[in-house]
Amino acid sequence: MKNVLIGIIILLLIAGNVYFYLKSREKSRPGNIMAGSVITKKEYAFRYEVPPYEMNAEMRKVAANRQELKLFAEKNRCNRQYAFIIDMRIPSYKKRFFVYDLQKDSLLTAGLVAHGTGSETFRGALVFSNVPDSRCSSLGKYKIGASYKGMYGLSYRLQGLDSSNNKAMQRAIVLHGHGCVPDTETDEYPICFSYGCPMVSTQFLQQLKGYIARQGKLPILLSVIY
């Protein structure tokens, strides 16, 4: 009888180990990754889905937005020399933060920029929100405001000009740099995420600083499109 009880206990222990092993394997499947988690190829082998896009079509869209900003700047006492445009349809591992000379209609430079962790779905489409604590990026036009030194170093306040982003000040949405954002394009995997801020590399922020320093009393416009 004693041997039978010992045998039953051993079988229960083995069954328990097998159960917990299978549950741990299930949790580690890519389909169960929470939106906003940082993933690397070494940890998970799955195809990262991006919004459907065609680069030439996106650049035509950016060019059209540049013309809109040019007209808006003329009518609303904003900087007529420079404008910043972020096209969130382009994946984060590609350069999608564009700096334009509005007078010459020419592209001056471009860099990588992160979107908010709340905007990432890992299923192709991004989502956007103006709601506080959503950690989402917000679409629309912004004015580049005063600089300050925050928890991420040099930062620029952003004033949202549209109903889709007019809570930017309340949400503390700012333009800032971070060491997790690379300076060069990566290999088809998302870069790190922000809490909703347009977050660039520290090196690229220094380039932007050079243009912002010349804005004077007429603020540069930043437009986030999708």
The SS-based structural class is alpha+beta
Radius of gyration, CA atoms, in whole angstroms: 23 Å
> Which percent band covers the strand fraction?
15-25%
Count of discrete domains: 1
Q: Provide the CATH architecture.
A: Beta Barrel
Shape, per Cα inertia axes: globular
Spans where pLDDT lies below 50 across 5 or more residues: 8-45
Average pLDDT works out at: 85
**Main pleated-sheet profile:** 9 strands, mixed
H/E element string?
A: HHEEEEEEEEHE
From the 3D structure, determine the CATH topology: L,D-transpeptidase catalytic domain-like
* CATH class group: Mainly Beta
Specify the number of helices.
3
Oligomer: single chain
Question: How many β-strand stretches?
Answer: 9
How far apart the termini lie comes to 72 Å
Helix percent band: 25-40%
Under CATH, the homologous superfamily reads L,D-transpeptidase catalytic domain-like
User: Which strands sit side by side, in order, in the main sheet?
Assistant: 3-2-1-9-5-6-7-8-4
Task: Spell out the key features of this protein.
9 strands, 3 helices, globular, 226 residues, alpha+beta, L,D-transpeptidase catalytic domain-like, single chain, 9-stranded mixed sheet, 26% helix
